[in-house]
Amino acid sequence: MVQRPGSGRINRMDLTNLIEAARAASGKSYAPYSNFRVGAALLAANGEIYAGCNVENASYGLSMCAERTAIFAMFANAMDEDERKIRVVAVVSPDAAPCLPCGACRQVLREFGCEEVVVEEGAGIRRYPFAELLPHAFGSEAL
Ligand code: THU
Fold first, then answer.
1. Is the CB of residue 55 below 6 angstroms from any atom belonging to ligand 1?
2. Burial class of residue 78 in the structure, from the number of CB atoms within 10 Å of its CB (0-12 exposed, 13-18 middle, 19+ buried)
3. Is 132 a catalytic residue?
4. Banded pLDDT at 10 (limits 50, 70, 90)
5. Whole-model pTM over 0.90
6. Which 3 state secondary structure label does DSSP give 142?
7. Is the pLDDT score of 21 beyond 60?
8. Distance, CA 75 to ligand 1 centroid (Å)?
9. Candidates 62, 65, 92: which one to mutate for ligand 1, based on the most atoms within 8 Å of Cβ?
10. Cβ of 39 below 6 Å from ligand 1
């Protein structure tokens, strides 16, 4: 059987790669106000990894989280609707571990079908099923 790219089981290697991509993205963070650097990397349904970092602003409220920057990168690069689905997102901060997505990012990740969140914990990683982080979520099916 021919498998679609990105449709197989997520293995340990995929998660390690994703954490490493998130770590690399955190190195690009622009966080001169909070000094809290964050990188996120998501594995999309097309098998590609899209990464992002937080980008702050002197007008604080205009700052953007790493997770949403990664989602915007997916939209900037993936063409088809069925490619623009998030299987799993990794979030890494050199300034805090674990670094879990904020509430706003959980809602936006949910919009694009995120199934799982992976963060660093101690010397290892921890996987959270998405529904554990945003139970009883609001989504398009309610409209
Ligand atoms: N931040 C993220 O980028 N992702 C998170 O999951 C938590 C918070 C950013 C927003 C802001 O630039 C800084 O971290 C401190 O809140």
1. no
2. middle
3. no
4. confident
5. yes
6. helix
7. yes
8. 20
9. 65
10. no
> Nearest C-alpha to atom 9 of ligand 1 is from which residue?
65
Look at the block and give the residue holding tokens 């959270």: 128
The structural domain count of the chain equals 1
Q: Reply yes or no on whether the pLDDT at 4 is more than 80.
A: no
Q: Report how far ligand 1's centroid is from the alpha carbon of 130 (Å).
A: 19
Q: To 10 degrees, the CA torsion angle through 12, 16, 21, 24?
A: 170
What is the overall mean pLDDT for the chain? 94
CATH of the domain at 13: 3.40.140.10
Domain boundaries, position 71: 2-142
pLDDT tens column, 75-104: 999 878 888 999 999 999 999 999 999 999
> Is 90 close to ligand 1, i.e. is its CB under 6 Å away?
no
Cα separation, 94 vs 71, whole angstroms = 21
